[in-house]
Amino acid sequence: MKTIILGTLLCLAAASTAAIAQTLPPEHTVTVPGNTLRIDVPEHPRYMMRQDFKKFVGVYDLSNGDTLELRLAGAEKYARIGKQEEHRIVATDRNAFVALDRQMKVRINHNDDGSVDGELVMVVPSQKVSGGDIVPSHVQNIGLASR
User: Fold this and answer.
1) Residues 6 or more apart whose Cβ sits within 8 Å of residue 111
2) Strands of 76-81's sheet, edge to edge?
3) Whole-prediction pTM value?
């Protein structure tokens, strides 16, 4: 009988501790942000010579069925997704680029086995859907299809 009473008291104590922990005031709580997608233009872009960028020039298939095209025009670098307008890009790393208008960033990996992979982070503009609702613009992460 003593065991049952003791067990009941311990359960009640544990339950009250859990209830207190759930009702802490806001100044004692911590908010942990999720992994947010951001497109930032560096204050000082990485210098990349024309011949170094040439290995990235071409058309890449995206995992959503669209394409990404990178091209050179003189010393300027440009990126285009599908039939959308071009974006002037600058290097942020040896294999990463960002659009000066903050609409996209891309990382392309040329692997030792000859395969290519990477990712594209882009702003998807707001859209009106068939029900009349508007989906606000948002940042989306799209993988490069391996080739």
Assistant:
1) 117
2) 58-61, 67-73, 76-81, 87-93, 96-99, 104-110, 116-124, 138-144
3) 0.69
What the block records as the tokens of 124 is: 């998807």
What is the spatial distance between Cα 41 and Cα 100, in angstroms, rounded to a whole number? 6
Residues 30 and 81: their CA atoms lie apart, in Å, by 39
- The per-residue pLDDT for range 55-90, each reduced to its tens digit, is 999 999 999 999 999 999 999 999 999 999 999 999
The beta strand positions in 31-128, using DSSP E, are 58-61, 67-73, 76-81, 87-93, 96-99, 104-110, 116-124, 127-128
Q: What is the pLDDT of residue 92?
A: 94
Q: Which residue has the higher pLDDT, 8 or 39?
A: 39
Report pLDDT for 119.
Answer: 94
Residues linked to residue 130 through DSSP beta bridges, in sequence order: none
CA 68, 85, 114 angle in degrees (round to 5)? 15
Nearest Cα to Cα of residue 79 among 35, 142, 36, 147: 142
Residues 6+ apart with CB under 8 A from 116: 60, 108, 109, 110, 144, 146, 147
